[in-house]
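Handoff note, outgoing to incoming analyst
You'll be picking up this chain. Sequence as last confirmed:
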Amino acid sequence: MNLANKLTIFRMILVPVMVVFAYLPIGGDVYTVPVPMLIMDLIFIIASITDKLDGYIARSRNQVTTFGKFLDPLADKILVLTAMVILVERGLLPAWIPVIVLAREFIVSGFRLVAVEKGGVVIAASVWGKLKTVTQMIAIIFAFVDIGGFFSFTYTNLTGGYLAINKSTIEQLPMIESENQQEIADLAKNITVKKQIDVSADTTSLENQIDFLVYHLYGLTYDEVLIVDPETPISREEYEAYKKE
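Most recent structure output, in case you need it:
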């Protein structure tokens, strides 16, 4: 087995390693990005580099083999689809994207199998197929460290604690003092980290703390809170008790 094929197999071995880190209880974050996501992103980057490297080595050393033509695109599919499934589970990617990718791969693989059966020819990936893989890999690399999630900038109907509050936005609110800005930012960061680690995590108490703080800092009465957020889970008694603290 030549070096190019060994790199391809190494890329496939990295896939289960990446999956294992998705379920390890590793805490901490770097710039609000959970450490497990950074580790998986690094593994994915290394695997993506081997995709470019094995092809270059095979062509430059004249080591292109039928086994390599078959295994290289297969390794790419396994790597990309595994990463997409992890992102879907973390709520960072809508499910329809990997569904489309998977359907396309089944169709292309079907054509390849027919070609092998009819003429004994293994069809290597075309330049367009390689470009597709590269663009997918680049998008996935960014998706792993995107704390907002797919198209989060279009979320305009969120209220209360579900509103996407980040430090840069909070700093633009002139009525809130710097120490309160930091408190809100820290609460929002905790919510983001918890959701990144476990999409189903209960962050209701943290969301309510943000609501309490923001409403109180702007001097809203409870009746005004109901206008801003008619579905608030905060009761009048809870709000009045918080204002007295």
